[in-house]
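Researcher: Dear colleague, please comment on this protein.
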Amino acid sequence: MTRRHKGDAGTALVEFAIVLPVLVILLLAGLQFASLILLTQKVQRLAATLGDLVAQAETLSQAQLDALFAAGRHVLLPFDHQSDGRTIVTAVGRSGGGPALVLWQHGDSGALAATSGIGSPGGAAVLPTGFELRADETVIVSEVFHAFRSDLASAIPVPPVVYEQGFYRPRLGSLTRLD
């Protein structure tokens, strides 16, 4: 007796139709993670660059700092830092044997509701564990916050806000006040 071969011409098509949604979800998730990695790198770069540029100034005005903030938004392109981010620069100083205090602070006009993790002007500074600030020394802290907007936010666990800090000692002046 001969067995007739059953037709399986559409099997591959059915299997592909079953696997396709999974492949599309994996592709979209991969793109979102790549976007998050890119945003994190750009936020790190902005925190480092901004802190370094501020620390190079002998004196600094709010207008100069605003110009640096405007230039910094270009570092984060294609991400919209004006509507999804916030940048804050803080000067922390220690006078004599006293505690480290926030000398001044200035933020950009970013729409993200974020406050400095260092403290507020005139108050005690919250510095990382092990960070030594010698007497009569100043440090510039740049903080960058940026909200990550994802189309798959409910399906992929990602941090809602990417946050980075940069710490730099002033090079030419003490920068104890903002003109």
The chain has one domain: 12-168. The mean pLDDT is 86. The radius of gyration is 25 Å.
